[in-house]
Each structure stands twice: as structure tokens, then as C-alpha cells.
Amino acid sequence: MTTRAELTEKIVAHKTYHGKKWVDVAAAVGQSKEWTTAALLGQLSLSKEQIAAASGALDLEFSEEEIALLMTPPYRGSLPTAVPTDPLIYRFYEITNVFGSTIKALIEEEFGDGIMSAIDFTMDIERSKDPKGDRVKVTLDGKFLPYKMY
């Protein structure tokens, strides 16, 4: 029996070994590179059609069991520890620790008491050229959900 974590490792190893790019897999799947990457890393479920497209783009055959795993809504959360140890992921943790209360205050001032959805949500990751060194631009775009009174 293959676990979802083992399947993720298989996909990433195959993709890396064969020099495939997430953006190319996403184009075949018909979704954004951010969504497709999250799905193939085990954080979202895919349809049979999306799995077939990803299989073709990756040149990787999936067993029936693996297809079922890819179609199953996952237990979300991809970090192995409460505080991330990977330096790149830790920067986002650090941003939240330092600027989280600022982000919260500014969202509440603009929208009121509520949250930004991570379900009705899009993300975009881009490279911006800069003479002092390329920049990483991350855009998080979530629907505002006000807290209800009852």
C-alpha cells in the first residue's frame, strides 16, 4: 500500500530526474502552476482527467491505487514540524511572526472583522527582474469572509 507522502516523493523525484517543470505540467492539466503544484504535492485532490493530463506531461504512469490517492481529498498541512526548519518556508513563518499583526490590523481596518479565505483563493508566484538581484513576488488573493453574528 502506497501512502500519499510516498506518492508525492515519487512524483517529485521523477519530475526532477526527467527535468520537467511545474509550469508545463500545469499547462497540460489546465490549472495554474501554483494549484497544480499544490495538488501534486498532496495538498489538493485532482479529477481523473487532471491526473491523466499530469501523467502525460510528467511521462509517469500512475497505478489505480495512486490515481485513487490523487483523487482523495487530503489531510492538509505539508509541514513536518510546527515551526518550519526549511529556510525558504521559514521566511514565510518569519514574515507572519513579524508582520502578521500588521496584516491583520490592516485587513480589519479595510474590511471589518473577518478572515481571508484560503479556499476561495488564488496564489501567483512571479520573478521580477531587478538590477540589485531578482525579486520574488508572491500574490495571495482570497475572498474576505466576515464573522457572522448569531
TrEMBL record:
<feature type="active site">
    <location>
        <position position="91"/>
    </location>
</feature>
<dbReference type="InterPro" id="IPR008076">
    <property type="entry name" value="Cyanase"/>
</dbReference>
<dbReference type="InterPro" id="IPR010982">
    <property type="entry name" value="Lambda_DNA-bd_dom_sf"/>
</dbReference>
<comment type="function">
    <text>Catalyzes the reaction of cyanate with bicarbonate to produce ammonia and carbon dioxide.</text>
</comment>
<comment type="similarity">
    <text>Belongs to the cyanase family.</text>
</comment>
<dbReference type="InterPro" id="IPR048564">
    <property type="entry name" value="CYNS_N"/>
</dbReference>
<dbReference type="Pfam" id="PF02560">
    <property type="entry name" value="Cyanate_lyase"/>
</dbReference>
<feature type="domain" description="Cyanate lyase C-terminal">
    <location>
        <begin position="78"/>
        <end position="150"/>
    </location>
</feature>
<dbReference type="Pfam" id="PF21291">
    <property type="entry name" value="CYNS_N"/>
</dbReference>
<dbReference type="GO" id="GO:0003677">
    <property type="term" value="F:DNA binding"/>
</dbReference>
<dbReference type="GO" id="GO:0008824">
    <property type="term" value="F:cyanate hydratase activity"/>
</dbReference>
<keyword id="KW-0456">Lyase</keyword>
<feature type="active site">
    <location>
        <position position="94"/>
    </location>
</feature>
<dbReference type="InterPro" id="IPR036581">
    <property type="entry name" value="Cyanate_lyase_C_sf"/>
</dbReference>
<feature type="active site">
    <location>
        <position position="117"/>
    </location>
</feature>
<dbReference type="InterPro" id="IPR003712">
    <property type="entry name" value="Cyanate_lyase_C"/>
</dbReference>
<protein>
    <recommendedName>
        <fullName>Cyanate hydratase</fullName>
        <ecNumber>4.2.1.104</ecNumber>
    </recommendedName>
</protein>
